[in-house]
Sequence to fold (427 residues):
Amino acid sequence: MMWRSPHRHEQNYDVIVCGGGAAGVGAAVGAARAGARVCLVEKYGFLGGAATTAQVLAYCGFYQQGAKPVAAVGGVGAELLASLSKYGLDTTPFCSETTGNWIVRIEPELLKLTMDDLLVRHGVDVQLHTRVAAATRTGERIEAVTLAGMEGRWHAVADAFVDASGDANLAMLAGVPYRIGNREGLLQATTLPMRIGGVPPEVSIDRPALCASVARYNEGGEFPISRSDGGIMFRLPVSSDIWWMAVDLPMAEVSSRCFTAMEMKGRAMANDYLHMLRKHMPGFASAYLVATGPQIGVRETRHPAARYEMTLEDAAQGKTSDDAVARAAWPIELHTQPGRPTYTPLGGAGYFHVPYDAISAAGIENLWYGGRVIGADPEAYASVRVMGTAFATGEAAGVSAVDYIESNHLRNARTVANRLRANGAIV
Ligand SMILES: Cc1cc2nc3c(=O)[nH]c(=O)nc-3n(C[C@H](O)[C@H](O)[C@H](O)COP(=O)(O)OP(=O)(O)OC[C@H]3O[C@@H](n4cnc5c(N)ncnc54)[C@H](O)[C@@H]3O)c2cc1C
Fold:
């Protein structure tokens, strides 16, 4: 028998990105296009973030609210949509029946493939099945991260880092202080989206029948449904499966114990609701659950300290900034009560600016944020967290990281914005 010793090695990069969701993909491609050697680290075996880990199958934030879809995100996000179209997905903006917002419906398997392709094409070193497990810091700089993968633990050294983990895992490991939830520590509700097959394509979704089914279920059902309007339900492209959001659960804390309880209860609820649909909805008699997960959809966890926190006023007034690096165009969508989202439109020209300091970590000079970890108060967060905006803030973070390295550690929002515009981003 040949015994082996644990394999240890160290690797050097310019930029390391933690997380392979919309923000991480935006950051990695943005940095790679700017000429950096980039490593993207993702704990699952595929990219996509909430779109593929939680079946969140609609991209929001690519377009402003209004009678016609006006683009708010370009750059890497737009390139991804164009690549998805080449794979045969119809990415035409679609106006959501229940909210009146413009969304792009996605197909998760095509998304995984398209993201793989995009990152490989840009020369990013993608490390799937790998988790950022520790960070080494000297004063106000992160020097390296410890990665835990199939081969055990190893070290990756870089000049600059992007936290696109959604949960602020890198910032937390590097010792950045964070807030959990809103001002009172309350977290937005979680949802387990359901993907339902077995409903013939010619069956249209009968909204009054859905509302009546929910009302009937709520008379004695074990898990009353909060969405009296029937919740968001539409047909998915390619498969024609039904996508439904109705399994809503409050989230008490950020812990594996709490996640376990929510996942288990969520699956029981999904099963119950499926039987309700089969019994009461016209055309749903043979419906079955194609998929949930792999994990429950988590809207909110940690908010790490940033150099600037965008506010409700910024969003409500549609505030613009000379130091802008991205636009946020989704209305303020709060899920304080499970299953009862509220929407508040943005002011000004229908978007507000994300300033450079909102994507910059407080107290660490070489860490940037992309996606739902950027600096925002609870209301501004309820707008900026969506995936379209996450592509834009992620790309801004990746380009900021490269600009910082190339300018000998200077921080200059204007040059970052110019570099972003040169690559087709909308600032
Ligand atoms: C139920 C629900 C419905 C939603 N509806 C919509 C919607 O319709 N449209 C929309 O645009 N947005 C929607 N959102 C919001 C949106 O999905 C998220 O806010 C968005 O995905 C944030 O993007 P992100 O890239 O910042 O993070 P994520 O998508 O969460 O991606 C983060 C990635 O980082 C990885 N990661 C985390 N920690 C580590 C680590 N230590 N090491 C390695 N990898 C790590 C994760 O596995 C994940 O892949 C919804 C969210 C939920 C929960």
